[in-house]
Amino acid sequence: MNDRGEQMQGSKTVHRLECNVDWPPGNVAAYFVDCAEPILFDAGMAGETAREELTDDLAPHGHEFADIEHLVVTHPHTDHIGQVQAVVDAADPELYAPASVRGRFERDPKSLETTVRTNAQAAGVQGEYLDDAVEMSVESLERDSSLLPSEAVDHWLGRGETIDVGPLTIETVHTPGHQADHLCYLADLGDERVLFSGDMALGTFRPVAMHTGFDEGYEDAIGAFYTALDRLAERDVDRVFTGHDAPHTAFADRVEHDRESLNRLLGRTREALETGSGSTAVDIAFQRSGDRNMEYLVIETASALAHLDGEGVLTSETDEHGVRRYEVV
Ligand SMILES: [Zn+2]
User: Which residues are close to ligand 1, an ion, with C-beta < 5 A?
Assistant: First the structure.
């Protein structure tokens, strides 16, 4: 339960809750704003273990899921919406999500399959890998739309909207690129301006530009990511509560770092095409990959190639197998 004295003074303390995940940096965070009407930003990883982890992190602050009055999600990836249903069951909070998620979740699976197959094939994905890519996209749609059921959402949030969430006024900033619907939330805690940033402006690394996966719009991922960084760069933020890594105060530096990282991605993609023997997204992703996840790298590389093509730096041709082959102009 909340401390009554704190409530009367209108204090808002943010507690970081953490779940383990299998990919770098090994954790995902949700943030509990301890105030008159407790707010949770994002809902951690899916599964029983994650539920226990979040519950255990809340307990020392004298709270449980049942206390949450508002739940706000940044984007519909499994590690950010994993416990939405558990919180809804325990607390029946007001639930807020980016408005464009609703349409994405209504995507016809058959049409998604066809589009992903065509685009993954164009990237040079073949055989069982192609079947896996198609299957994974449909599974993600099914999983994520069941983790964040549209009928449970009370407030569909627009892009660049200001809304009161309990005692907190938040401004939504549309930050696509990592994920097309992604919103960051700016809020004034009284003594500082903070950003609940989801997967943007992370402390140590830039998130993969997954945007729409291999669905419609993947060609726009890199351009969208730059637009998101431009939008963020205009803001004054004292502290960032990120979805991975620890909260930090290096907002402007991190935005600049991510911009440089995108520049490097484009530079390396072009260079690989000039110096390597390959001409497809898969060829170039192989040249880039260390021990990182190829699946996501291929999507990001295909988006980088499409971006450079759009800038007139490259030309492309689709061969008789539906594979897009690039060369430097
Ligand atoms: Zn994400």
Answer: 77, 199
DSSP for residue 174 = E
CA of 203 to the centre of ligand 1 (A): 15
Question: Which domains are seen in the chain, by residue range?
Answer: 4-316 (3.60.15.10)
Please report the pLDDT score of residue 1 as a whole number: 42
Burial tier of 65 (Cβ tally within 10 Å: 0-12, 13-18, 19+): buried
- Report the run of H or E that residue 192 belongs to, with start and end: none
Distance CA 272, CA 278 (A): 8
Query: Which DSSP symbol is given to 179?
Result: B
Cα(152)–Cα(125) distance, rounded to whole angstroms? 37
| Residue (of 4, 6, 70) closest to 41 by Cα position | 70
- 10-residue mean pLDDT series, the chain (329 residues): 47 94 91 97 98 98 97 98 98 98 97 97 94 96 97 97 97 98 96 97 91 96 98 98 95 97 95 89 83 78 96 95 95
